[in-house]
Automatic annotation (TrEMBL):
UniProt keyword terms in alphabetical order: Dioxygenase, Oxidoreductase
Listed InterPro entries: Extradiol_RC_dioxygenase, Glyas_Bleomycin-R_OHBP_Dase, Glyas_Fos-R_dOase_dom, VOC_core
Gene Ontology molecular function, alphabetical: dioxygenase activity
Protein name: Ring-cleaving dioxygenase
Record domain VOC: where: 7-131, 152-269
Length: 314
């Protein structure tokens, strides 16, 4: 059995302050808050999704913001750096924009590309890279134009406690192509035009610890529900232990931990975020699955109010 993912579906991380999370990803980075819901397994915690105008697969970063949660430590068994793709010629704009918010940046080179690296308000590692591939974002906020706006994921850097095992999963389970090595990294590429470039440090990383400012899991794309079932069978055939198929309302999911310690998910492209609210008003209302709807008043009372707003620079 042979399968190939087109790339990243979404990345999910931990945070603390819900409003600060919205201010950074919507206010500073200009992403659209496409869904506000709850952690289905812990309904006292928000689950916030940020992406392009429709929350297309390959653009979505999600957070579980929980006030008072412990600070995590980035390390092995995690996505170490989340990469975003921006239009060619826009990196200097982003350097100036981030500086205007008091965010320190640095430029690094990898595989002939220049990356602008920085951290979010919780310490999560992020980077921007210019890419010609990928559709421009049509979502405009705080004056950002399609010539500047983040398109979606460029990819990710995976920190592994056993790099050979992680690279084996990327190649022989997910179907990525190994492109080569540079400066202590191996590069792998998926077949899509966004969220498709994965770098793995060749040196093993020490285990990280989960908590605010760290990534919980990375999800890969399955094209539809039938393809998803084939992925579940393939993962089991390769010797991993996938979960049962779980309905996450906006996609179906299976999870498994690869040999380098990173939690992988495979998620379906459909049905998408307009599954339970109009596309033109995505993210404006707290959406609950039907089994939690009778408890809406209690759930909302326990969540801090959030709003998308223009953030003033420093």
């Amino acid at each position: 059995m042979s399968q190939q993912t087109t790339g990243i579906h979404h990345i999910t991380a931990f945070a603390r302050d819900p409003q600060a999370n919205v201010d950074f990803y919507a206010g500073v980075l200009g992403l659209r808050l496409v869904k506000q819901t709850i952690n289905f397994d812990a309904p006292e915690v928000y689950h916030l999704y940020f992406g392009n105008e429709s929350g297309s697969p390959g653009t979505i970063i999600t957070f579980f913001p929980s006030p008072g949660s412990p600070k995590g430590r980035i390390g092995g068994g995690q996505v170490g750096i989340t990469s975003y793709a921006v239009p060619v010629g826009s990196l200097s704009f982003w350097e100036q924009r981030l500086a205007g918010f008091g965010i320190q940046t640095q430029q690094v080179e990898r595989f002939g590309e220049t990356y602008l690296q920085f951290t979010d308000n919780e310490g999560l590692n992020l980077e921007l890279v210019e890419r010609s591939e990928g559709e421009p974002s049509s979502w405009s906020f705080d004056g950002l134009t399609p010539d500047q706006a983040i398109k979606g994921f460029g990819g990710a850097v995976l920190y592994s406690v056993k790099p050979a095992a992680t690279m084996d999963a990327l190649q022989h389970v997910l179907g990525l192509e190994r492109e080569g090595e540079d400066s202590g990294y191996a590069r792998f590429q998926a077949s899509g035009d966004i969220g498709n470039v994965i770098d793995v440090p060749l040196a093993a990383a020490e285990w990280g610890t989960g908590g605010a400012g760290t990534v919980h899991h990375i999800a890969w794309r399955a094209q539809d529900f039938e393809d998803h079932a084939r992925w579940q069978a393939l993962v089991a055939e390769k010797g991993y232990r996938p979960t049962s198929i779980i309905d996450r309302q906006y996609f179906n999911a299976i999870y498994f931990r690869e040999g380098g310690g990173i939690l992988f998910e495979i998620a379906t492209d459909p049905p998408g975020f307009a599954n339970d609210e109009p596309a033109e008003s995505l993210g404006e209302t707290l959406m609950l699955p039907e089994w939690y709807e009778p408890h809406r008043a209690q759930i909302q009372a326990g969540l801090r109010p959030i709003q998308v707003r223009v953030v003033e620079g420093k």
